[in-house]
Structure formats: structure tokens, C-alpha cells
# Entry
Amino acid sequence: MYRRYVYEAGSLSRPEKGSVKVFEDKVIAKERRRGFELSKSDRFRYRTRYFTDSG
# Structure
């Protein structure tokens, strides 16, 4: 649910905030197809990355 919120909120263009970067439509479409879930390989890659970044 949190990943969905981040992607959906990040895709909104808010002119009052000035020049803010937003997710491209193709990125949002890809995540919607995946159901906003990480694959096993993605989870492993992120876990390994954060483990090595911490030390």
C-alpha cells in the first residue's frame, strides 16, 4: 500500500510547488501492471544494497 501511495502521489503535478520532479506516466503504468509489488530479485538487490551502504 505504501509503495502505491508513493508512486501515485509522486505522479501528481503540483504547479504551486514550483518546478518539482514527478514520475513519468510509463513508470506509473509499469508499476500498476506489477501491482506495486517488488519481485524477489528486487527485494534481494535492495536488501544487499542497504546492507553494504550501512557499513
